[in-house]
Inverse folding.
C-alpha cells in the first residue's frame, strides 16, 4: 500500500494534464489517509505490527497513457489479491472498500475528464 501511495504521488507530480493532476492529487490525499486508518484499525484488531519495514522506491511513470493503466492495475490488485490479506472483520473491510472506492473515482476522472 505504501508503494502504491508513492506511485500515485509520483504520477500526480509528473502529469501534464491539469485534470489528471487534480484527480491524482485527490486520490493521493485520500489514499494516504485511508492507509493510515486501515493500519490503525488492523492494529486495534490484531495488535501492533512490528514488521513494518522500508520499501523499494516506486517506479516513476510520467506518461498520461500509462496513468490510467496504473490506476486500473491498482484497482485490480486491491480488489482481488489485496482483499485476501484482510481479516474477516467488517469494520476493517469497510475501510478497505472506501479505499477501493476512491481508486474507482480517480479512474473515472482519469478516463473521462482528463
Amino acid at each position: 500500500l505504501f508503494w502504491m501511495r508513492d506511485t500515485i504521488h509520483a504520477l500526480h507530480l509528473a502529469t501534464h494534464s491539469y485534470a489528471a493532476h487534480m484527480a491524482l492529487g485527490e486520490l493521493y490525499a485520500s489514499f494516504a489517509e485511508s492507509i493510515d486508518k486501515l493500519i490503525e484499525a488492523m492494529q486495534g484488531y490484531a495488535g501492533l505490527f512490528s514488521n513494518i519495514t522500508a520499501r523499494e522506491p516506486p517506479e516513476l511513470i510520467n506518461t498520461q497513457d500509462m496513468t490510467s493503466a496504473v490506476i486500473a492495475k491498482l484497482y485490480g490488485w486491491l480488489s482481488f489479491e489485496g482483499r485476501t490479506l484482510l481479516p474477516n472483520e467488517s469494520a476493517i473491510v469497510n475501510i478497505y472498500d472506501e479505499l477501493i472506492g476512491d481508486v474507482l473515482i480517480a479512474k473515472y476522472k482519469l478516463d473521462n475528464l482528463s
About this structure: The CA atoms of residues 32 and 88 lie 23 Å apart.
